[in-house]
Fold each of these.
Amino acid sequence: MIMVDWATYVQLLALVQNSIIAAAILGIVGGLIGVFVMQRDMAFAVHGISELSFAGAAAALLLGINVVAGSLVGSLLAAALIGLLGARARDRNSIIGVLMPFGLGLGILFLALYPGRSGNRFGLLTGQIISVDLPQLGLLITISLLVLVVLLLVWRPLAFDSLDPEVAHARGVPGRALSLVFMVLLGLAVAVSVQVIGALLVLALLVTPAAAALRVSSSPVLVPVFSMLFGFVSAVGGILLAIGGSLPISPYITTISFAIYVVCRIVGSRRLSATSGRTLVAR
């Protein structure tokens, strides 16, 4: 619900400009890496990593240290465990199923022990508008750029391994090494996304935009572009709406992201029906 007038909204907009920049970057990064999350069928892994990221952030909050650093430690630990022990899909899902309740339980324990404001605890789960200072913004930008650069460097072999792992292995593509690299990149992306949207709803930035993009295109060029665009619109649009109200960021971001997915699904279904109709007429 919008709670402020236009003049106040403009003033609030100036106060959270760093948060808007961070959200824009994370929306783009999440949309791009989400393409591989969907191709490798690892949406469940995103949720598992986010739970350990939440536990790390909660531990950092309790200890009074940098929350982003704690979130990174938790995410990278989960990513390494999943990448090293979950080579096969069945093993990976089992590991994630074990890590999720463990990470969530640890996080809740740390938050219960935290004596500070309840808003800080709630924000780790569902996201919040915070005044991101320049050092924090610099850290988020650095991590995001690192993810983007490494992802672009391994794009072709990673895409090959994601679409046809058996043929890629036969051609000499180091699938296990690529999988571990991707899991580390995914862990970094999850850790920085948790700061904006919260641990429980991180899928809205790392899965939904790519899932929507795949509904309207199968082009190896257009899918990443659409996914980044959808992630950007969801993240920035969510913050712009949340500034004027009293609700956390997450409901806005997830609603925008879900609405985009629904529209893309409808458009994709109609396009598929039209293509099928033309094929029948041609026959």
Amino acid sequence: MAEVAPAPSRGAVFADKVRLGFVASPAPEAQAALKKFAKRYGAVDPSSASVIVALGGDGLMLATLHRFMGTEVPIYGMHRGSVGFLMNEFIEDDLPERVANAKLSIIHPLKMQVENMAGETLNALAVNEVHLFRQTAQSARLSISVDGKERIGELVADGVLVATPAGSTAYNFSAGGPILPLKAKLLALTPISPFRPRRWRGALLSNKAHVKITVQEAGKRPVSAVADHAEFRSILSVSIREERAIGLKLLFDPGHALEERILAEQFRF
């Protein structure tokens, strides 16, 4: 009886079809990994890759997500930087197989629309959060509306932020906001060093909510608005909502999924 060779695994089959494109932070360890991987596995231009491998830390991952936003190309991060919450462990061997067997997480960014004192309307997208912050020594005075209804007439604080579940472990958590499970259809609205109202510590909102934040005394108490890396100064108001039309695809090794990491972060002390 003739022997039948075992069928190749799904990972092995897909690994043969993966076209890897690499991006790396300027850090020496990331640049060294880039050269080594390109030589060992070959590399295509990131614009024609089926998977982009990002070598660096979370800052590089955010920059890569913004650079390729709207392309629907999945991104597989490897930790070659400082903070690596969004990255997989750096291992040199079997990269195509690891990528082929990785688990997919899809996240949606926030869309920020700003009206500034110059009369301009400006837009930006945020993977982690949108935050407003005072520009001078004086506290910001803000009002907050959700879905057209005013919820806080005057918030006196350093600022306020709206965070996605993926970004809830970053600035939001440092400001005292809650960590949100990745699949929770929620946004975190969190004040930054609030003075009044004293007992308000934020709110959980539906991911379909439309948040509008208006700056009071904008000339006397100027405020900036930041969406990840994009900053606009001297603003009058900011509108924030989730942009469901854009799905960002991140790949994680089995057992290292972003959903599990966000859950585990709630039990660290």
Amino acid sequence: MRAFNKMMFVIALCVNAFVSHAAEQPETLKIGAQAPDFNLPGVDGKRYSLKSFANADILAIVFTCNHCPTAQAYEDRIKKLTSDYKAQKVAVVAISSNDPKAILLDELGYTDMSDTYDEMKSRARDMAYNFPYLYDGDDQKVALAYGPVATPHIFIFDKARKLQYNGRIDDVEKPTGTPKNLDAKNAIEALLAGKPVPVATTKTFGCSMKWAAKEDNVKKEQAAWAKEPVTLETIDEAGLKELIQNKSDKLRLINVWATWCGPCVTEFPDFMVMHHMYRRRDFEFISISADNPDKKDKALKFLQGKFASNKNYIFSIEDKYKLIEAVDPKWQGALPYTILVEPGGKIVYSQQGPIDPAKMKRLIVENKYVGRYY
């Protein structure tokens, strides 16, 4: 079932890519073309243009992003290209041209970050990027000039900044695989040796570019959430204990909350973001209301206002101490309370009080039952 879910998610990404390409894809820069100039902010606070790399004999420009699983799979290889050839006057620069306002939450199932400039800073820091990482997402002028097809897409230029190679970095997306064709490396080696690039163009596989025209799709996504049914079921002690045992094959995030709990109400939208990000993966979010049973209608109304189409429960009796013991004997009783439970019932995270949403998303996507790669 897990393999089937992953396959269906990848198919959805590919369909999105096809639709985007058909409607928005600009022409890709031709071999021999002059590199279009740019003036973009980097995550280090500096601005970069072609002149910034004037001392390089070879310039490799990689269009990539934070959120795409294929882009994440290539991060270490881009870092290796940078370090392997730095002494030979080869410069590598990465550009993210995705419009953050055009990215659907259900396109973020393999990541803990979207593609805003601030999130780019965080990703570059977390992954210790050794190359400049530039933002082009506001007007996408650079992407429109170069015409990347997917992320990642690499363009390699000679000393005169004539394009000599464009396409994939290599032919294996998953970082645990072994590529048969090291296309970008071969192009660099040929240029360093003063020889023609053996294969000048290749196709490139990855996530579609998120062009600004797709911003309307985000509004449609949000409108669709409002049509999804929201339910609230009553659950007893035995039912709670079974939830914690997690006999499913999914990573299970459980949040205990109440309508009268200020921090609970404040943080609940963060759980809805995670629900919509990861629900196509081997993941599920479950909420448990600690409101008294006679407040069920009030709790349901709150959930409906948050488009909480996940599984929602309310404890069947007023005895909150039985609720506490059934959920987690280690819980001291303060709300909100959140646990992350692997299949088989192993609690791998617990938090009394509000969570850190960024940390939680990272815990989810890096858990072995979910993962960053397909």
